[in-house]
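Human: Not sure, check this?
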Amino acid sequence: MAVPHILIVEDEEKIATLLKDYLEKSGYRASILDRGDSVMPFLKQHAPDLILLDIMLPGMDGMDVCREIRKFSGVPIIMVTARVEEIDRIIGLEIGADDYICKPFSPREVIARVKAVLRRLNPVRNEKTITAGGIELNEETRQVTAGGYDLNLTPNEFRLLKVMMAHPNRVFSRNELVNQVQGYDYEGYDRTIDSHIKNLRKKLACVLPDSEVIGSIYGEGYKFNAD
């Protein structure tokens, strides 16, 4: 089994080196970049399994880097920030981040978050295809097809759709979806679900314009309409 490759994008040398040491001691392979504008050239040559992305970077800030990555890749991204005012925008997932960590942090916390994200992406399972509401979702290949088109979903969007498709017409509260999608309970994460749903609906509407695939139940949550 290949050793997961973690890309650290951090311009503070001490922090980057500390993270690299902890990741390697935990069995990962790690690379370091100290500029935001170095990320795209790196990704053309390499395929990391996860990116730890600082927000404050020279060349290109982490928010813009994340947006650029999401135009072509679903690689999981954990944002690292010392700017409290950025948290709401990260939580809102306007940029497609999977998680975030605030400085100062414990390296052990970072390792725990990395493990949690990778575990969510690579659970032990048999190949399984879910078909509902004109959509086909393959858990093994992580492909989603609707209206004859392949959808380019972020990891969180994929997990959210999978959970709801597995239980069509069931109403999920925001807290239930947070626990299912993020893998742990965290105060404030329920606000991310609305952004996930909004982005997912946009993508589904492009290929299934005449269907309301995901319905809103006022005061309760969301459901996948299989009919």
In short: The mean pLDDT is 84. The chain has two domains: 5-121, 129-224. The radius of gyration is 18 Å. The CA atoms of residues 11 and 34 lie 4 Å apart.
